[in-house]
Each structure stands twice: as structure tokens, then as C-alpha cells.
Amino acid sequence: MDVALIHEELELISSQEKFFLVPVNSSTDEALEIDRLNFDLQLIAKRDIKLNGHDKRRIVALMGIIHLVAGPYLIVAVKRRPVGNIDGSMVYEVMETDIIPFTKTTIHLSEPQGRDNDAYLAMIRRVLATPGFYFSYRHDLTNSLQRVQHNCQTKGSTFTTLPLHERADERFLWNGHLLRDLVVMPELRRFIVPIMVGNVSISQCKVNSKTFVFTLISRRSVRRAGVRFYVRGLDDEGNVANYVETEQLVSYNGNKTSFIQTRGSIPLFWSQKPTLKYKPTPCVDVSADHAKAMQKHFDEQIVYYGQQVAVNLIDQKGSEKNLGDTFGKFIKSMSSCLIAYDAFDFHKECSKMRWHRLSILIDRLLPKLTEFGFYMADPSGTVVCVQQGVFRSNCIDCLDRTNVVQSMLAQKCLESQLQRLSVLGNKETLDKKEQFLKTFKNVWADNADMCSKQYAGTGALKTDFTRTGSRSYAGMLRDGYNSAIRYFYNNFYDGFRQDSINLFLGDHEVDRWEGIVTPSPLHVERSWRFKTLPIVLLIGLSMLFMTLILPSTNPLFQLLYILFWGLAVFATLAYLYRYGPEFVDKPKLGKKGQ
Q1: Angle formed by the axes of helices 528-549 and 555-578, to 10°?
Q2: Which residues does residue 97 pair with via DSSP β-bridges, in sequence order?
Q3: Domain map (residue ranges) of the chain
Q4: What is the pLDDT of residues 94-130, one digit of tens each?
Q5: Which helix (H) or strand (E) holds 177?
């Protein structure tokens, strides 16, 4: 039996005392039995399961088990969407999930405990509702082609026969915490499905009458994971916020090529907590040991990827200037021949719709792009060449500006990949391959949207340039709408989103005695201003509106009413702005370093 194979579809049978996960269309006689009373797990024979009177349903993957106040919950994927094939293995996106309690009743909980348990369940559902959960029963989505080849060299050729969860890069294994009750039992390996969060796009394309497969995979890290504003910079171990590895693959006639880029928050100790301001000022921690943590970050990046070019796209004036200057100072102080730094003031250079000026940056980076190259293996699996380094790009969020530049670098490298595969001529470019370029640009724009939804809560900005190669006023209006939605999420919803991620990844674990022996972290006292001032503002706005639209027999009195309620609204807004941090939605489930 191939230990790497995973059961592709399961029947979940539920009785009062047990869960049974039975492989569908499998020649094996094994099934997983989970005791709902004492939480024991064991493999049994299918024939030993008595099916009479039990609830049955089909599921496509067991994602894991989460422990909340009421006890354990089984998390399963119910529906999937096929994305495409990689090396003959189908990749799926999770489309629907379910959370099933081990204990059917919650009468053992007090009323406050019940409310807390419901709140935790809402958090888990919130994470699972986020688009971009991917899995495969055969292919390891968490590792790049070059990393698999490296692991085979260092860990032996048997690496590819290991179960997928044992091969997985733990940086990108999003259900690692949920699997902790399963991975301790090697015999359960065929029931364990690794889940990656990010974006996967697989397209069959044609250039010069030659058909190839173009694949883009973005892998979001579980380390220092979170949402915009609440998770910025790095931690003591050198892990940065919104870290994403993006791999561009081209497969043609059995040849495989791969090109990797990374993005991640500026590797300093800095914060940008929401305060009701549209754009809070980034604050660099002057007392922190930036050099040590940044060294850890780049040391790890060099081990994984080789040379580094840090492409910094933030503003070189205004509120972002100090952050950029500090980054440049510390990275230059490292004096490493393996780390280069390139700062490009994206907004200044591309202001007034001058987006063609991005070519200035790309031209500067081309020598390094050529030097780094890409990974390639021929049909026999022989490694032809490897990638020697990566571009590590960032803007303030590592979303919009970053994706634009990454897509332009990717196009330049793609030309080299296709030339090496003889899809393009030696000096031929993609500039006139309009049909393919449309696919390429849409894939990268969709990648930007997915990464942005997962971190900021909305689609990306500036995607009109990524999709069409030019900036439009319609695109600017769409960016304005997305910016308004981001503002709402960042100030009034992201505390809950951050708590949800912390709980899902195990950065916060629920105490089984919560609410009895230990206090609940969900119960936070708020200032009287939090409840009073929004009500005052609502009353003031209502009265001002009524005064403006209702007819009056005395214009002087109406003017006085308008002035009074207008002043009340203005004063309340000023007060809210002054005490802005008290009105934003803050995380309650603490995580070290946040």
C-alpha cells in the first residue's frame, strides 16, 4: 500500500456514541472510529460498523478537530471545487464546511459559557468562510518544486513516499493545529488532508501553437498570521506579517519550470493600530532590537531561497518615510553580499497616471532577475537549473503595490521560462501574444484579490493596471469603494477577524475550565464613551436631518435648531476622533508579539 495515498471521499456516519469515517470507493477495509464520549480514535474494519439507524453523509476531507468550551468539534469539508491538475493530481478549493460537536447537548455549560462557546464557533465559521482554502489528495501544495527536489536530496528519495502531512512545509500548513489529535497516530495517515490557504490558478494556454500549463500558487504563512493593521512587522523569531510565497510554474512536454517570489511586512518592530483615522501613522518601536530579529528573518530566507533582493515600495515622504528610512538603515548595516536593497517610491513615481514609470524599477532589477534564474527539471526528473535567489517585495500592506511589481517581474521571468522550453524564440517576448497576456494578467489580478480578501477583507486595489496594463478612472473609483470597505473592516470588524485566526491556528487555545476556574478573555469592559457617544451621534444626526427637511413657520428658530444639532454632531464627531482607539474593534484573544 502506498502510504502517501489519502482516501479521496468519506462517508461520515454518526451515532449517539461514535463517529465513523468510512472510505468511499476504496478497496481497503479500514475505517476511522472516533468515540464521542471519551474522544478516543482508532482504526477498525468496515464490516464491524453497524449501520442501522445512524445518520450518514458524504464529506470530501477531514480538516481536523478543534477544542472549545463545550468540548471537541469535528471540522470537515463538505463540498469542493476542482481547480485543475498538477502532475496528474487534482487540486481542489474548499467550498463548504461543517463543524460537528462531539457532545450533542450543552446543558453542562452555564449561560455565560454557552455564549462564549457560541462566540468561539462564530470565529471558526468566520475563518472557514474565507475564500482560498485548497487541498489535494496526491500533490503537496505547501512545497515548491525546488524545495521538493532539495528535500529529496537532504532527506532521501523516500521523502516523496511520506504521507502528505509529513512532507508539508509547516509554514503553510493551515490545519496543522486542527490535526494535532490525528498526527500522533501514524496509522491514521490516509485520513489526514493538509490544507493550504492562499490562491491556486491552473490554466491551459497556447502560444505559437504550443500548448502548456501555466500555474500560479500563492502560499500564506501561518506564522504571524492575521489581518491588516493588527498584525504588522515582525516578531522576536523573525516571522513577518502577511508573508506569502508565490510560485509561477510552467509545464510543457514533461519539462517543469518554477519561479518564486516572496512578500512580507517590513521586517522591523512596528505597528499601525486602527484609531478611526483613515490612515493611522506607522510607529516604529525605538526600544526594540530590530537588528537581531531582522537578521533572523533574512537568515531563514537565505536558507530557503538563497540571495535576497528586498524591494521596498512604500512612500519616501509623509507618514511612511520614517519606516522606510529605518528599514534601509538596518538592512544596509547588515553588510551582507547575499542581501540587496532597492527602494522605489511607487506613489511618487507613478503619480498622475504615469504608470509607465514602473519600467524604471523593473529595468534596475533585470540583472538580478537574470542572475537568479528559475528552477527547471526535464521529463526524466533531472534538474537542469535552479533558482539562486528571490525578490522579497513589500509595500505598507504587501498587497496592492506589491502585487503589481511582482506580476511585472513574473512576466519577465515567464519569457525566459518559455524561451528555455522553446515555446518562444530566443529573443521573442510576450508583448504581442495578446490572448495569452490577457490570461496571465487576469491570473495575477485574481491572485491580488484573493490575498487582499484574506488580509484586508476586500479585493485588491490597482488591479485594473494588472489586468489591462493601464490605469483607468473606473479603476480608481473601484479602489475608492474598496478603500471605504477596508476602513469599515479595519476599525469595526478586524478585532473579531484577528481573534478568529488566532483561535483557528492555535495561537490561542480555549481553556476547558473557562468561565468556571479561569475568566473568559471574551469579556472586556468598555468605557462609558463606547456606548454613549454613538447613541448621541445617532440622535444628533436624526434631529439635524429632521430639522432640515421639516417645514417651519419660524425660519429663525429653524436656523437655531440647525446650528444647535449641527454643533452637537460636530462636537460628538470630534470627541469620537479624539478617543478613536476606544471605539475600534480590538482583538480579545491575545497572541505574543501582537
Answers
A1: 150
A2: 77
A3: 10-132, 195-505, 528-578
A4: 999 999 999 987 888 888 899 999 999 999 999 999 9
A5: none
**What is the rounded CA–CA span in Å between residue 32 and residue 584?**
45
Helix axes of 400-420 and 358-372: crossing angle, nearest 10 degrees: 50
The DSSP symbol for 581 reads G
pLDDT of residue 593: 45
Write out the DSSP string of 27-61.
S--EEEEEETTT--EEEEEGGG---TT-EEEEESE
Nearest-5° angle of CA 317, CA 323, CA 327? 115
3-state secondary structure of 260: strand
Q: What is the dihedral of CA 129, 446, 85, 387, to 10 degrees?
A: -120
What pairs with residue 246 in β-bridges?
218, 261
Q: Which residue type is seen at 84?
A: G
Query: What is the predicted pLDDT for the residue at 53?
Result: 58
The answer to whether 395 and 401 have CB atoms below 8 angstroms apart is: yes
Q: Whole-angstrom Cα distance, residue 62 to residue 178?
A: 10
pTM, full prediction: 0.92
On whether the CB atoms of residues 220 and 398 are closer than 8 A, the answer is no
Residue 327: CA count within 13 A, CB half-sphere: 32
Residues in the chain: 594
Beta strand 255-263 with 389-394: parallel, antiparallel or unpaired?
Answer: parallel
- Most distant CA pair in the chain: distance in Å? 91
Distances from the Cα of 295 to the Cα of 172, 237, 268, 437, angstroms:
22, 10, 10, 39
pLDDT confidence of residue 51: 67
Alpha carbon of residue 517 to chain centroid = 35
What is the rounded average pLDDT for all residues in the chain? 92
- Sign of the Cα torsion 44, 45, 50, 53 reads positive
Burial annotation 511-534 (CB, 10 A radius, 16+ → b, else e): eeebbeeeebbbeeeeeeeeeebe
Distance CA 280, CA 320 (A): 10
CA dihedral over 575, 579, 584, 588, signed as positive or negative:
negative
Q: For residues 565 and 578, give the distance between their C-alpha atoms in angstroms, rounded to a whole number.
A: 20
| Residue 167 CB neighbour total at 10 angstroms | 19
CA 293 to chain centre: 22
Q: Which positions of the chain have pLDDT values less than 50? A: 1-3, 592-593
The amino acid that residue 326 corresponds to is T
Q: Are 309 and 249 in contact (CB under 8 A)?
A: no
User: Which residues of 395-500 form beta strands (DSSP E)?
Assistant: none
Report the alpha-carbon distance of residue 346 to residue 22 in Å, rounded.
54
